[in-house]
Amino acid sequence: MIKYSILCLFFSLSLTNCSSDLEKEIDGKPIYDAYQVEGGFLLRSLSDNKVYVYNPDYCQKEFLPASTFKIVSSIIALENGIANDKNYAMPWDSTNRALPIWNQDHTLESAFASSCVPCFQKMVGEIGLNKMQEGVQQLNYGKMDIQANNLTTFWLTGRSTITPYEQLDFLTKLYRQSYPLKPSTYHHLQQMMVLATSPEGVVMKGKSGFAIENGIKIGWLVGFIERPDGENFVFVNQITSPVGKLSDEKFLQARKKIVGDILAQMKVI
User: Fold this and answer.
1) Rounded to an integer, what is the distance from CA 177 to the centroid of its chain?
2) Which CATH number fits domain 1-63+195-269: 3.40.710.10, 1.10.10.10, 3.30.499.10, 3.20.20.20?
3) Taking the model in full, what pTM does it have?
């Protein structure tokens, strides 16, 4: 399980009115600068639908979804009976890969948590081209370029894109169960997406993503915050950095540390 630090650096997050009464801008630049990345952040309160945004122009840009797409492929697999539940078996194919955690048997839940790319590539192949296209269309998820010749890679490289705003809308509908999905699909997905629980009972659910395209590292952390007081939120963090500027480790850590810093300063966590 990914660990999130609640003790964060102090940054000013002054609120100013944007174009909509339901959208307010936050000054997150010092945070992103501290981690040496460019990016954008979105937070939606599910009680009043207000959206807080850092870098709204950036949040309209299109990026590969990378492994955040595992949310979508899990939904489609569960809806079509490819996976019956979160315990769906995903046996290791005995091929040694760079990440040791991929070199073992998985369930859908553990493959989701470890972001096991070969596990999901095999499952997407079992879903098939037509069902994958239909599922993505039903969810209205970004602009996915799904063809027979890229079926097992389209979310990792190529022309498939989604904006941070589109991620926010997708996740909001998913949390509110606005899609015509089976109750069991929602149930298993909510369990699979748990990332961390604080001693105070705050639960973070979500999925990270990482890709490299045209010399740029692309990072995501998207998901939900559930609080004991019943206040719930949807968040999206998207970051980029030129290859060679930061180590992969520092870049990947920046995804979650930025989320922790901003949410703490906004007193969401």
Assistant:
1) 17
2) 3.40.710.10
3) 0.91
